């Protein structure tokens, strides 16, 4: 498609090269890929959402807002998981450094280390599932021309 009117048909409406809701579908797809790309596609999706935020009707704007909220919620979760992994590395690294210097360093409690690993992994898995659910609902709503909730439910966005 092109952006110009057909000169042979003066009643023809100009069509954009890419519809706004198509860009919305791309944004949600980028978020669904985010857990598997280390979050890189989420950065692309939030940039897309910020650029498009004022475009489209109120329904589409609710989806851009939803995508921005998904990003910032995910960022907070990322910081929490990062803190857990840093704590784990602190425990593990302290035992590694102590044993390499042939000192009698205290070995960290294996239970604590395993609890940190399990907690970080569970949060990461839950976040991945949340992203997929939230974006799938967003895609369904966008396809049915329905707005996201305002304010959205944390789990579903409705």
What labels describe this entry?
158 residues; mainly alpha; elongated
Number of helices: 4
Low-confidence stretches: none
Query: What kind of sheet is the major sheet?
Result: none
Question: Span from first to last CA?
Answer: 33 Å
Please provide the count of β strands.
0
Helix share bin:
55-70%
Q: Mean pLDDT, nearest integer?
A: 80
User: Structural class, from secondary structure content?
Assistant: mainly alpha
State the order of secondary-structure elements, H for helix, E for strand. Answer: HHHH
Strand content: under 5%
Radius of gyration: 23 Å
Shape: elongated
Q: Care to describe what's here?
A:
By secondary structure, the protein is mainly α. It is 66% helix and 0% strand. α1 packs parallel to α3, α2 packs antiparallel against α3 and α3 runs antiparallel to α4. The mean pLDDT is 80.
In summary, what is this structure?
The protein is elongated. It has helices at residues 20-33, 40-52, 58-100, 110-143. The protein has four helices and no strands.
